[in-house]
Amino acid sequence: MKRIAVVDTTFARVDMGRAAVRALQAQGTGFRVVRRTVPGIKDLPVACRQAFLQDGADLCLALGMPGRAEYDQTCAHEASLGLMFTSVLEAKPIVECFVFEGEADGPVALEALARRRAEEHAANAYAMLFRPQSLARHAGEGLRQGFADAGPVRRTR
Amino acid sequence: MKRIAVVDTTFARVDMGRAAVRALQAQGTGFRVVRRTVPGIKDLPVACRQAFLQDGADLCLALGMPGRAEYDQTCAHEASLGLMFTSVLEAKPIVECFVFEGEADGPVALEALARRRAEEHAANAYAMLFRPQSLARHAGEGLRQGFADAGPVRRTR
Amino acid sequence: MKRIAVVDTTFARVDMGRAAVRALQAQGTGFRVVRRTVPGIKDLPVACRQAFLQDGADLCLALGMPGRAEYDQTCAHEASLGLMFTSVLEAKPIVECFVFEGEADGPVALEALARRRAEEHAANAYAMLFRPQSLARHAGEGLRQGFADAGPVRRTR
Amino acid sequence: MKRIAVVDTTFARVDMGRAAVRALQAQGTGFRVVRRTVPGIKDLPVACRQAFLQDGADLCLALGMPGRAEYDQTCAHEASLGLMFTSVLEAKPIVECFVFEGEADGPVALEALARRRAEEHAANAYAMLFRPQSLARHAGEGLRQGFADAGPVRRTR
Amino acid sequence: MKRIAVVDTTFARVDMGRAAVRALQAQGTGFRVVRRTVPGIKDLPVACRQAFLQDGADLCLALGMPGRAEYDQTCAHEASLGLMFTSVLEAKPIVECFVFEGEADGPVALEALARRRAEEHAANAYAMLFRPQSLARHAGEGLRQGFADAGPVRRTR
Hints:
Five copies of one chain form a homopentamer.
Chain A: E1 2-9, H1 16-27, E2 31-38, H2 44-54, E3 59-64, H3 70-90, E4 94-98, H4 107-130, H5 132-137
Parallel strand pairs in A: 1-2, 1-3, 3-4
């Protein structure tokens, strides 16, 4: 039985963790979800390391929603570096799912974007553990999470 | 008995450490506070590592107040990366609490902001060690430290 | 028998992995290709580490296509740092091959650039493992991948 | 007997190392100074690691003077990250003392600034090893090195 | 017998490695040169780690020539961080010698700059291994590599 850690924040303004857990459970079985919630995105890396070491997680889904200020971009950059360092150190994937407040106009669009992106990253997380060949089949196809896929540069190949 | 290290600087212009310790003690019991003071924010990461290794800390609260100059932003970025690297290395949380001088106008507002943020991060630190479920209950609710909470994007869910 | 890992993404809009594998096979023999596909470039570092540890790779070719937005540049920077950290940690080369969408005008040019760059980095990867002296012979000659070589500053030496 | 390493550069335009050593010796006894000089600030991190491993240093004072160009700021940022990583790795303090050429107008002011900052960081280094409580007494008091102290936000507390 | 690794790239437009090796040999004896050539500057850090681990190098001289584009600055920054991380990890010096194409006007000036800087960094590398006291004698004297020395801020001390 694999374990997937869903790690989210109290800073985020949408409950992305709940959306991610539902999406994971809709993907299939064979895993158990463990949950951790931290204050902000800069607390995610150590929480992921603890999920690997203490909860036996095989993969972490790290969810966050940086604000609109320039400083929030800096925090997101720092958090991303920390998540990458942690995943390399543990040799286990951390799927980063960040939604920037400025990516959508208005609360309805922002909430929809955040949920959709969380769901699509959750599907990716499931595929990484259980169906890696499904990722391989879509290599170079311009897939996106949250917004519409960009698609391959040329349709005919 | 858990140990919480409160690490602050002589560079800061408000005694955030004192505010944090009081707030910690108001949260509950079951922990002992250890203190370290260093010159500036770039000295915080190694002081946290020493607090983990030498003082047996289970969590560090790292308090700093970068100045208004652009170079101070760079120093804060470097300090943040160091704090994140240290927490991942030790697999123990470091709650970073930085207040930028430019965030408030005038000494009264700056002092109030610094104390409030230190207090609210102290409450988070306590929750991370003793009441993680209280963080989980507020996942995605747009909580902030120092300023008013942003709140969830939509109130009705 | 050496092993070369070709790691690519579903985010990329050109199937650079296929171009790289063909180019590798055209270089010579003595190696086996292992494949991994991940969602985006920030997932490449841990996938390379897994390729080293789990697949016994001697070298990774990491292929990605960041988008046009400024945030994509940040992601590429983070991914690059992660790839470099991973290669140093493992003491094994990771050949990074990124194509930015903004580097070419129109789908035909972008696809041609992406394939050519993947092929030329694949040739470099082969040389690093099997013909290091061929790299040494071209030291300081202004070689480029994807675009025309810049050439040495002065032709006569 | 503690050991303090004073590490400086040939790139700097003021002999900050000499100023630092004198200031250290004026602070008190109980330590021996070890010296290392490297070409530039980017050579400081490994020199500090060598001072810890080979010279038995308990603390390093890393002195440098980046130039006026924008690229010098980048080098200083890289050096700072390297110094921080090294100190965390070794769990021993590295007191970074950088003076940017653009911080002062004219050679007399620049030299005075560089010496004063070196002296004040040396005093901090001594305090970190021998009088940590003296740092604790000044927590949050807005101390600065090289220029006048900013002081606490409010005098009455 | 010490070993000095000279690591260069096929991307560079001047054969800096050859200039460096000649300059090393003109400095004195007691060492053997080992050579590695990689495609670009981002491949230098792992090549240096391999030189330390596989070739028994005591010091690496890492030579590169980033292009004029803004992205080349980013690559140089990433390479520098990788080189610094590697040197700290191994506790052995890596002398970074980068020449940016935009630093000189025209091929003759660029080639002269690249060779001179490679030579002067080679002299530094030799001094770091065999004559550290010669570096110490020039602490704070404003030495530069490639261009004229800036000199100390004040001549009389």
